[in-house]
Amino acid sequence: MDCLFCKIVAGDIPARKLYEDDQVVAFHDIGPQAPVHFLVIPKKHIATLHDLGEEDKALAGHMLFTAQRLAKEQGCEQGFRAVMNCNEDGGQTVYHIHMHVLGKRQLAWPPG
């Protein structure tokens, strides 16, 4: 498989990791859009949000709670944004689901 994030999970491509367990990896974004900007990805390859199955409910919840905990650890007590893009029209560029977590600055709405 030629998936960038699968290669990070496998250790074939380096990343500045914040956290890793048996289900997820979290690492700093290579092009940060905020003072805090990291990604939470599942170790399991799931291409898009449309591909999530019933069996992935616990994994999706674990991603969200991991994002929440790491945002607090990164000093985002005043607030943060967690976003997941789906397919090209939704802004997805890497086809392995991932959650962007951004914080430590005022975030406008709508985002763009």
TrEMBL record:
Residue span(s) of domain HIT: 4-112
InterPro entries given in the database record: Histidine_triad_CS (IPR019808), Histidine_triad_HIT (IPR001310), HIT-like (IPR011146), HIT-like_sf (IPR036265)
GO molecular function: catalytic activity
Histidine triad motif, short sequence motif: residues: 96-100
Pfam families, alphabetized: HIT
Catalytic site: 98 (tele-amp-histidine intermediate)
CDD domains with a match to the protein in the record: PKCI_related
PROSITE patterns linked to this entry: HIT_1, HIT_2
Protein name: Histidine triad nucleotide-binding protein
Biological source species: Pseudomonas turukhanskensis
